[in-house]
Design goal:
190 residues, 1 helix, elongated, mainly beta, single chain, Porin, 11% helix
């Protein structure tokens, strides 16, 4: 009597693989209202005073965001950007030995549109409190101030629950000073 086991195992494995693939392709998109994101933004902080002095620094910011969709196309969101590295301050093209670090906390309204399955574009408009810490040979200083904050972004689904995000964010623009930059993040719906 011949054993059918050698042929039965590959057929069973193929059947299980096919059923699993079909189940995954039929998994509905997770449409829960809550989301969270973690990422990195490379900011450029620059400004110019009335005397013609211009300064620029490019600090990095770890971003953590959380939000709630109040409508399929509108979310309320909070974003915290923690300055994780100091950047050299360049004044009129010269490095003067000073460094800067930027952090911010913002509250946003975030309209979004799904442009194709799994691809979403969004905007951000809100208010952010930004803190700049500077240190140099003559000492250190810090200041916090709030302003209108803006952003644009693109989410691309990785799974029904997660996505990769590319953003442009401007957490501060006021009195000749501006902080803005591009970032990448990973997001989850829950």
């Amino acid at each position: 009597m011949k054993s059918r086991t050698p042929m039965a195992l590959p057929m069973l494995a193929a059947a299980l693989f096919t059923l699993t693939a079909q189940a995954q392709s039929q998994t509905p998109e997770l449409n829960t209202p809550w989301f969270a994101e973690v990422g990195y933004t490379a900011l450029t902080f620059k400004g110019q005073d009335d005397a013609g002095l211009s300064g620029k620094a490019k600090p990095g910011v770890l971003t953590v965001a959380g939000g709630y969709r109040v409508h399929p196309n509108i979310a309320l969101e909070s974003v915290f950007g923690l300055g994780i590295n100091k950047a050299d301050i360049v004044v009129n093209g010269e490095n003067n030995g000073a460094t800067a670090k930027v952090s911010y906390l913002g509250l946003f309204v975030r309209p979004s549109w799904e442009v194709s399955k799994g691809v979403e574009i969004f905007g951000r408009v809100g208010y952010a409190l930004t803190r700049v810490e500077a240190a140099g040979p003559l000492g250190s200083a810090s200041d916090s101030e709030g302003s209108l904050a803006l952003g644009l972004g693109l989410n691309v689904a990785v799974t029904p629950q997660s996505y990769i995000q590319a953003t442009w964010t401007q957490p501060y623009k006021k009195d000749g000073l501006r902080a803005a930059g591009f970032g990448l993040a990973y997001g989850m719906k829950f």
